[in-house]
């Protein structure tokens, strides 16, 4: 079975595509999402083989969402779009799977047949369309937020509670469904420890400790560890 997730902010389009894909016994629709916030959580938790991804979504577009996924665990992406001749030409040029809305049965059958032959991730998607991570989908309690990466002072992972982001906005702390590895790939945050990352713009000073370790102090009076493995990221303390 090809594990599939559908991401589309239009309920009717989402339900119609789900019905059509489910008609093929080789596909298992394991989730549907109305926006990128839901989709990222679903993709990270359920690990689908294929994602049918709407391009025009509010707050975070389908292309922007690509920058928020772990490139080493990227599912195959099929873009779904109702507009944008430029985008369609880009898809054709780079041999990227796409469907036009409203999705026609015969065109969908072609896409499904291709996926049956090969549903492995296609590197061309991230190479051709992904952008640098600019905003991060976060939450505090039941509220969703979009945080500019430039506002993040410190990111860290907790084995029990996931990834946390400390921002310069009144020293607030948020949680995100993005793994720390995503920030390694395409953001200005620097890895300083297996579980910690730092925005260099907020570093006040760095000091060397015993046993080859280091410690960062930020302008917000945070203290962040630097492990031996990441000393090279901070030449001022090596």
Structure, explained:
By secondary structure, this protein is α/β, with parallel strands linked by helices. It folds into two domains: 2-129, Rossmann fold; 135-237, OB fold (Dihydrolipoamide Acetyltransferase, E2P). The chain has seven helices and 15 strands. It has helices spanning 11-22, 36-46, 62-66, 85-93, 105-117, 123-129, 180-186; strands at residues 2-7, 27-33, 50-54, 76-81, 98-100, 135-140, 143-148, 152-158, 162-167, 173-176, 190-193, 196-198, 203-208, 214-218, 223-226. The strands form four sheets. Strands 2-1-3-4-5 form a five-stranded parallel sheet, with helices on both faces. Strands 10-9-8-12-11 form a five-stranded antiparallel sheet, with helices on one face. The protein is elongated and about 65 Å long. The N and C termini lie far apart (51 Å). The mean pLDDT is 88.
Q: Secondary-structure map with pairings?
A:
Blueprint: E1 2-7, H1 11-22, E2 27-33, H2 36-46, E3 50-54, H3 62-66, E4 76-81, H4 85-93, E5 98-100, H5 105-117, H6 123-129, E6 135-140, E7 143-148, E8 152-158, E9 162-167, E10 173-176, H7 180-186, E11 190-193, E12 196-198, E13 203-208, E14 214-218, E15 223-226
Parallel strand pairs: 1-2, 1-3, 3-4, 4-5
Antiparallel strand pairs: 6-7, 8-9, 8-12, 9-10, 11-12, 13-14, 14-15
Uncertain residue ranges: none
- SS strand fraction: 25-35%
Structural class given helices, strands, pairing?
A: alpha/beta
Termini separation comes to: 51 Å
Radius of gyration: 20 Å
Q: At the fourth CATH level, what is the homologous superfamily of the largest domain?
A: Response regulator
Count of DSSP H/I helices: 7
Strand order of the largest sheet: 2-1-3-4-5
User: What is the number of domains?
Assistant: 2
Task: Based on Cα principal axes, name the global outline.
Answer: elongated
Mean residue pLDDT: 88
CATH topology of the largest domain: Rossmann fold
The SSE order reads: EHEHEHEHEHHEEEEEHEEEEE
